[in-house]
Specification:
alpha+beta; 5 strands; 31% helix
Length: 86
């Protein structure tokens, strides 16, 4: 687990789950937490790859926090899971 991004609006964490057996594919993805909506979403597979590619492309332009947040908001709009405090 690696914290990738933290703003007033969002937290993005990357998860890498190694394969249990040699030669098998590992799993992983990105968790996005929308602090204001108090929802979260886990992106994996093709959606996670799309998210990563978009972040890399955006990072090349040296965006502001607002621009990063706007990009992340496009994915967090899909979030259905409420954030629960333990």
């Amino acid at each position: 687990m690696e914290l990738l991004y933290h703003s007033d609006s969002f937290v993005v964490v990357r998860f890498d789950v190694p394969a249990e057996q040699p030669g098998a594919l590992g799993r992983g993805g990105y968790e996005i937490v929308d602090k204001f909506a108090r929802t979260e979403i886990f992106l994996e597979g093709l959606l996670a790859e799309s998210f990563k590619a978009g972040v890399e492309q955006l990072a090349e332009q040296q965006p502001s926090v607002e621009e990063f947040d706007a990009y992340i908001a496009r994915f967090s709009a899909l979030a259905q899971q409420p954030v629960a405090m333990h």
